[in-house]
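Sequence only, no structure available. Ideas?
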Amino acid sequence: MQSTTDVVTCTECGRRNRVQRSATGIPRCGHCHTPLPWIVDASDDDYDEIVGSSTIPVLLDLWAPWCGPCRFVSPALERLAVTHAGRVKLLKVNVDEAPAIAERFGVRGIPTLIVLDGDEVVARQTGAPPEDALQAWLADALGVHQSMQDANG
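Reply:
I predicted one. Tokens follow.
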């Protein structure tokens, strides 16, 4: 069983902070209050709790350790989580260890990247594009999320 907290180093002041894996709101540094990158691993057992408690969009990375393109895209996704700290939660799911989640989303190729607003899929792509393309794709998906938030009040 995984711990319910992770330790994250603040990109602004360098302080280490405990961040709940499953929580509402946005994790912030206890010292300087800067939004912290929220990068979490999930399994079939805790996926619903982690996604269900998130009040910000979730960038779901469905990957496997034997997959070369997955290993290529992972550092870029982690940098995006830092860049978009406070706006997105990166959730990494190893499809070999979480087949129910892979099945839920009909994964046929990896890496599969999905932006979720609650249970709703906002954007989806399969493959490992360059980081600048990922940045544009995520920015567009977050813009769609913001438009949906504005329309709902």
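The two ends are 39 Å apart (CA to CA).
Hope that gets you unstuck.
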